[in-house]
Write a structure and sequence with these properties.
- The structure is a single chain.
- The chain starts with a strand and ends with a strand.
- The mean pLDDT is about 95.
- It is globular.
- Helix 4 runs antiparallel to helix 5 and helix 12 runs antiparallel to helix 13.
- A hairpin with a 2-residue loop joins strand 24 and strand 25.
- Strands 14-13-10-11-12-15-22-20 form an 8-stranded antiparallel β-sheet. An 8-stranded antiparallel beta barrel has the order 24-25-26-27-28-29-30-31.
- About 25% of the residues lie in helices and about 35% in strands.
- It contains 17 helices and 39 strands.
- It is α+β, with helices and mostly antiparallel strands.
Length: about 675
Amino acid sequence: MFKKILIANRGEIACRVIKTARKMGIATVAVYSDADRDALHVQMADEAVHIGPPPANQSYIVIDRILEAIRQTGAEAVHPGYGFLSERAEFAEALAKEGVAFIGPPPGAIEAMGDKITSKKLAAEAGVSTVPGYMGLIDDAEHAVKIATEIGYPVMIKASAGGGGKGMRIAWNDAEAREGFELSKSEAANSFGDDRIFIEKFVTQPRHIEIQVLGDKHGNCIYLGERECSIQRRNQKVIEEAPSPFLDEATRKAMGEQSVALAKAVDYCSVGTVEFIVDGDRNFYFLEMNTRLQVEHPVTELITGVDLVEQMIRVANDEKLAMSQDDVKLDGWAIESRLYAEDPFRNFLPSIGRLTRYRPPQEVERQVRNDTGVYEGGEISMYYDPMIAKLCSWGPTRDAAIETMRGALDRFEVAGIGHNLPFLSAVMDHPRFVSGNITTAFIAEEYPEGFEGAALAPADAVKMSAVAAACHLVRQRRGAQVSGAMEGREYEPGTDWVVRMGDEAREVTVADAGDWLFDVTIGGAVLKVDLSGWRPGDALIDAVVDGAPMPIKARRITDGFAMDWRGASRKVFVRTPRVAELAALMPEKLPPDTSKMLLCPMPGLVVSIAVEEGDEVQEGQALCTVEAMKMENVLRAERKGVVSKLNAAPGDSLAVDEIIMEFE
């Protein structure tokens, strides 16, 4: 077995590989850029080597820098993680020349499957069902329009070397085909150094289901079930689960056997994933094969009990698989929620900055797992993808796994940046997700205007009000214990309060039931609130209401709390009846008028400005392009107007809400 391996990656996947290597008794080497000098993967590894400036194209994807780190440390093998160099055949070849093992498939398989055009041809030859499309390279935007018209709209425009949702666009007409081609080509060149583009038919009402394969160097290859990855936004997966709630055993077997046939056709070894689009009749079509470890691999590990990273290392060490297809058993259900540094209340735009609070839920063997590469006080950088963590849950049934995920998300504390925890919680409670009736259009269909927070059922609003009132009384009593008060003038908090949430006010009576227990009367009903798991100052109110857990994330505001639970964010004010009466008379403070300004919606770099001062713009017209976290975002005019002033220029680095341009 290898004595030392180098991880040519960063973030959570580097930390994930280090954990398995440590379990196997293998020493690890981390590599890091200037931006990652204090990163968690650097702290966890036995050794760490600096490889360059923050941009990935000057550090993590520079093969010579990785090779130099290998020479410095004497590493015998390299695990590439995902992204970066993981699917670059020339990297595997360069390692072979150095006499260093690549913990992944052979270069030929990477080259064949990493190119989407070649892979589709090979899949068809191997008897795998494929999507109709144009397998040649697209010359320019007009050629793209011609091909799209021949295939028939809608079409998917894709980067041949793409992945992770980058370099992908759906086009429904000629104009979108032209624009999509240019944007995909630009993103592909920036992210992969390869701007080749191809086009295929976009299957409507599709599910994204993938098969995990595992092969060794001795001709053995098996599949380890499927993963449902249909909850996506901008072609990037957000929630994954295994198995799929849609597949039957016959379809699972057919997809698995075709995936193994494709893997064997290219002499595949190591772990890999064959991705399919599945329509409503369970017809499935090959999309691509990812010749690496997938981001969502933990859900497969949780239902099979197989450590995929360990298997990759053993296969790279020329070991035979210790299991056959008959040994693979799917046990229970697993769900993964990807926690991103993206603000759902700003249309999921990237957010960067320091994690002023980062408290994941407690991990429980097999039931709750959190793969992460960050820590409290660390920074989310603008140079890499916005993933913070992958929270996973397991249960004997799908409903049980969902309920475990709900509780884990409720207890996950993050502050300092925008993040998608509220959205993930909202999805877990969404009736359509709970039913399993999902497609890749789920987010677009269910949140067409973006995410504005989850609705709060009336009964839950009453429970949240009860918790707020009980917590407020605790704080009031603590404040009354100040020393030095005049005798006979001590403050004694009352029991009657008015709780206001939005436009609704509730009269509340709070009675102490002893030992952090309270009887809260609202509307004639008495709710029993247990606060034994909370102390003033805790950001998580781990309350129990009428015997049911209700963990609420809260921060103090004047006269109350800002509370978050199950994707719903509410300001809850707790006041005495007289103060509530006076507060109702106060005028509402309106936000400043920014309707005549284009604000930068996230921290990013201005790539281009498409208009000039004095130009008249139409609704929907492209105004500028801002790049953030490797994605180019086109900002468009919300209404007709005339540009009066440009406040930014290409190359400018802007903060969130900084003014880009103004209108008359």
